[in-house]
Write a structure and sequence with these properties.
- This protein has 114 residues and is α+β, with helices and mostly antiparallel strands.
- It has three helices and six strands.
- It has a four-stranded antiparallel β-sheet. A two-stranded antiparallel sheet has the order 1-2.
- Helix 2 packs across helix 3.
- The protein is globular.
């Protein structure tokens, strides 16, 4: 007797249906964290315009909740990926850690490179 398991060929993500192969081929957003004393930085590497928009939506939502001054700039990695860098200086109360955790959760990033 043979058992066959049928898998859906479509995935629904953020209200949008796409074929599983399309989502699997899309690279994920990678996070890299650096910190010392009162300085913290997270770099988010991305590949698509949609990922860029998703990062900016998350940053805007978090900034409404946390009014900590930040520096944000764009750069490119040596592999050609685009990178958004968010830095916090003079973070006496270490609020940036909570902000980064919320950001990673909103972007569905499981771990950060340290």
């Amino acid at each position: 007797m043979q058992h066959v398991v049928a898998a859906s060929t479509e995935i629904k993500y953020n209200g949008e249906k796409k074929k599983k192969a399309e989502w699997m081929a899309a690279p994920c957003i990678d996070a890299d964290y650096k910190g010392e004393e009162r300085y913290t930085k997270i770099s988010l590497a991305y590949d698509t315009d949609e990922q860029y928009k998703e990062i900016n939506r998350a940053l805007a939502a978090i900034h409404e909740e946390h009014k900590l001054d930040r520096s944000v700039y764009l750069t490119e990695s040596s592999s050609g990926r685009k990178v958004i860098v968010i830095e916090y200086h003079d973070d006496y109360d270490r609020e940036a850690g909570e902000i980064f955790e919320k950001l990673m959760k909103m972007l569905d990033i499981g771990r950060c490179k340290v």
